[in-house]
Amino acid sequence: MKIAVLFGGTSAEREVSIASAAQVVPALRAAGHEVVAVDTARGVLGPEEERALLSAGVSPVPPGLAELDLLRTGNPATLTEAPELRDADLLFLALHGGTGEDGTLQALLDLIGIPYTGSGHLASAIAMDKDIAKRLFRAAGVPTPDWAMVPPPDRPEAHAAAAEAARALGFPVVVKPSKQGSTVGLTLVRAPETLEAAVAEAFRYDDEVMLERFVAGRELTVGILGDQALPVGEIIPRHEIFDYECKYQPGMAEEIFPADLEEHEAREIQRLALEAHRALKLGGYSRIDFRMDDAGTFWCLEANTLPGLTANSLLPKAARAAGIDFPELCDRICRLALAEPRRKRRG
Ligand SMILES: Nc1ncnc2c1ncn2[C@@H]1O[C@H](COP(=O)(O)OP(=O)(O)O)[C@@H](O)[C@H]1O
Ligand SMILES: [Mg+2]
After folding, report:
1. How far apart are CA 163 and CA 254, in angstroms?
2. Could you read off the pLDDT of 282-332 as tens digits, one per residue?
3. Active-site residue list
4. DSSP class of residue 76?
5. What is the homologous superfamily of the domain 127-143+215-324 according to CATH?
6. Which atom of ligand 1 is nearest to the CA of 242?
7. Whose CA is nearest to atom 17 of ligand 1?
8. For the domain 2-118+333-343, what is the CATH code?
9. What is the pTM of this model?
10. What residues contact 81, with CB distance under 8 A and at least 6 apart?
């Protein structure tokens, strides 16, 4: 097959996406596909450019917003005019965050009718918006921690309202951008004095910010592949929360597949993960993040529609625990994409 791997882009998760592509591109080539690498910020890459970009690692901190702005030249929509994309049988989305994961790119691709991996545009947009996703989790009976949206910072009552909401949820409270990933812009706030700065930090990454009840306990994640929940993973980060550094620096988190859970517990969290996946109408594959409290309740934090595929990433580890190696995982992701009924052109 002719496959274009789309990656990079200008989101805060650019480097993570490059690291995912560095695994996906060789795996697809080894499987015999004709593969072209496309950085959605720069365009179709030649062999030299590809080698240089894909050999870069992930830094301990995400790229700065100013640095990403510099890459925002031209109109990304014109990318779809490139023959390498038009003639591809499939686009493999190794993108994370921003317009590559939030449904914007998916809508554009639906319009021109090129098949792509992962969820469709509506599901991608819903999953990226944690506020909307949490409402759907609740409606589907998937427990998710209480939360409150913070009023926009330019309103005179904003600070007092945020302080009141935090008091109602109780400290420590988690402050996060509603539409972001990789723990970027997220702060665990232990006392009212540091709330305002945390809210301001989150607003740097999104125009909507939420406060969420902190769930002390274990960190678990469940990969979904097709209609199957993969073995549950437990993450033991070096820091109290699974932050950017713990996610992408080797040795900063212990990741255990399968997690040490009773059989009935593993079955229950897998059931909840599938419910969450279906509640958001996700397609192909996803990874659902949870915390487990001391009482044994599983609290769903979010669904990732394009979870990391780096050498260090959780979904590939979950697949391996199910006997699916990385090339086989990539192959399954491609086949799931081509089998999607939404690929049929509509009016
Ligand atoms: N309500 C919460 N209680 C405890 N830890 C949390 C909570 N929300 C987020 N975290 C921590 O922050 C990490 C990132 O949060 P998450 O909601 O999954 O957003 P992201 O899209 O950035 O991954 C989680 O994996 C967890 O370690
Ligand atoms: Mg997460």
Report:
1. 35
2. 999 999 999 999 999 999 999 999 999 987 799 999 999 999 999 999 999
3. 13, 182, 248, 287, 289, 302, 304, 308
4. G
5. ATP-grasp fold, B domain (3.30.470.20)
6. 27
7. 301
8. 3.40.50.20
9. 0.94
10. none
